[in-house]
Amino acid sequence: MQIVRVYSGDDGESHFEDLTPEQFSEIVNRVGTGDINLNVRSSPTFSDYHTAPRRQYVVNMAGIAEFETADGTVRRLHPGDVLVAEDLTGHGHIARSIGEESRVSLAVPLADG
Question: How far is CA 24 from CA 13, 49, 69, 81, in A?
Answer without folding.
Answer: 22, 25, 21, 12
